[in-house]
Amino acid sequence: MLDLVESPEPSKIRTADGTVTGYYEYGDPGGVPVIALHGTPACGAGYAWADAPARARGVRFLAPDRPGVGDSDRWPSGRGALVRDYAPYVVAFADALELSRFALIGYSGGGPYALAAAHARPDRIDALAIVAGAGQVGVWASLEEFETADRQLTWLAQHVPWIARLGLSLSVRASRTLPRAALRFVQIEMSAPDRAVLAEFPSARAALAIFTQSARRSARGVVDDYAALGRPWGFRVEDVAVPVHCWHASGDLVVPPRHTDELIRRVDGARLTTWPDEGHLAIVHHIGEVLDALIGAGR
Predict the structure, then answer these.
(1) 8 Å CB contact between 54 and 217
(2) Among 87, 67, 105, 121, residue whose Cα is nearest residue 234
(3) Residue 231 domain-assigned?
(4) Domain-located, residue 50
(5) Given Cys at both, which of 6, 9, 170, 254 links 280, Cβ 3.0 to 4.6 Å?
């Protein structure tokens, strides 16, 4: 059974421009700072399982919610934002916490945003981990490669956003009201390894917190997130100069391993570790390995 808080509560911080960012903090409060960017549809509450491994390694594990997600203020440009536009948010968040330098993790849909931050501000980032990172749609990835729900929600977010918001709002409400039934539904398209990981959560409510707490205000931010991830990112990954280590499970049915293979080809010096016979949730078991690599790279 995973050692985690069932429904972690976020903190809030106001950055220099007056924007509020909701975030979750795990691990050692005085430790080496690592900022972790969540996937989609998700939020920083989904990293609760990283608390004990981070604490054991002396890592201050910080998981901010992207604009409009959880308690964070929405993008000024709404669903017209590009992935590159998130880079200043990461730096502003670090500034507000008085972090001069930090390591960065981008998981799943958080991968593109982590790469954007590394591209824009290599002077602030010691090392970058991309775990099961989503590919750049329209460049080396296509919507057809993603699993059904993500594919549909990305298309709706770009073309009929009100339907995407309605669908996500109803799903969040159902997940809060009937978590066991909602979790069984979520598992329909999951791989066997991912279902096994979910079985280790102490409750259905804990497993779904990553989703339910993403819409604490509304589903608008999650829809904006999908829309941004469904178009080219707005920067060249080939120009990323931060040390990059990628991890991807061979049995990932959510984000094809090919997406990471293509990223590795484009980023000079990037390394790849493959987790055989595991799924999209393999990071839950391997977060210690990822943190060890980041800490080592930053020294």
Answers:
(1) no
(2) 87
(3) yes
(4) yes
(5) 254
Query: How many domains is the chain built from?
Result: 1
CA 221/CA 234 separation, integer angstroms = 19
pTM, two decimals, is 0.96
CA trace torsion 223, 229, 233, 236 (10° rounding) = 150
Note the pLDDT of residue 299.
55
Domain with residue 251: its CATH number is 3.40.50.1820
Please say whether the beta carbons of 136 and 112 come within 8 A.
yes
> Which letter does DSSP use for residue 132 in this model?
S
What average pLDDT score do residues 183-193 get? 93
Range(s) of the domain holding residue 77: 11-297
Nearest Cα to Cα of residue 113 among 153, 156, 66: 66
* pLDDT score of 298 more than 60: no
38 part of a folded domain? yes
Does residue 5 sit within a domain? no
Closest by CA to 182, choosing from 146, 159, 208, 151, is: 208
